[in-house]
Amino acid sequence: MKDYKLTLAILTVAIVWGTTFLSIRIAVETIPAWFVAGIRQLLASVIMFLILVYRKEFKWIGWKNLKYQIIFSILMLVIANGMTTVAEEEVTSSLTSLISACSPILVFLGSLALGLQKFSWRAFTGVMMCFSGIVFIFWDGINDLKNPDYALGILFLFIAIAGWASGTIFTKKLNLHSGNISLNLFYQFAFAGITQIIFAFLFSENYNFGNWTLRSVTAMLYLSVFGSVAAFFAFHYALTKVSPVQVSILAYINTIISIFLSWLILGEYISFKFIIAAVLIICGVFIINYNREMFKKQKMDKELTSNS
User: Fold this and answer.
1) Which cell locations does it reside in (predicted)?
2) What is the pTM of this model?
3) What is the mean pLDDT of residues 235-241?
4) 4-27 vs 214-222: helix axis angle to the nearest 10?
5) What gap in Å lies between CA 33 and CA 44, rounded to an integer?
6) How far apart are the C-alpha atoms of 79 and 160, rounded to whole Å?
7) HSE (side-chain half, CA atoms, 13 Å) at 92
């Protein structure tokens, strides 16, 4: 029997997160980045709270589980999502999505270091292709790094993907399976939202609410409802079914969608070298993650049975 829930979860992550880079870029046009990130997560926590209350499932999760949720929230939401949002104040959404597509490299290297992944020359080739793609990204734009704001934005992006990879590995390493994903998400969103709102008031130079446009506010609301609640729910569900490497392979699908939308809607310039970089990174990610059995449902079912 086909796992339609898993298929829907994967499609949700691929499509919705493919639009989040575009939405973030639009949101930070008039709203300070930490406010975008903080309000996004805080609204998401309110939505999750209402869902839990309606289902009569809201409860205290215990200090041990809360600790895990806070760690995951720090890595995936405060660091990964927050730093990405801050970076997009200076970096285009297409470039942000392309650099973010490199996260499976860190997932692979981290899994290798922890013994969750075996070394292979095929995977090494994929890593080298991804690094070659990064070289193509900055081939003509290396002088742009002389701009301190732009350079800081690039640094924030690499910090973000490091946080994302760490959170992905952390979840699978501890075998964090939950009977109520919604409850865990509420605590994650609430912690991240409060933390990022505090950051917003501390680090935002100008947060004149009267300057916020409807276009930016709408993008922020989209991020809350779809980019956070729907996509993160789907992501957590997928992580309970497949390996972190298999989930992270969605990054290249997100990248294709994001680059196309950035060109179509925001009119961002996509050079030939940028396209080469995208092809190298996407192919590299695929090579790193690919094995002949990874798409076979029968094998996946056996793995799930052995892990349960």
Assistant:
1) Membrane
2) 0.82
3) 76
4) 160
5) 17
6) 6
7) 20
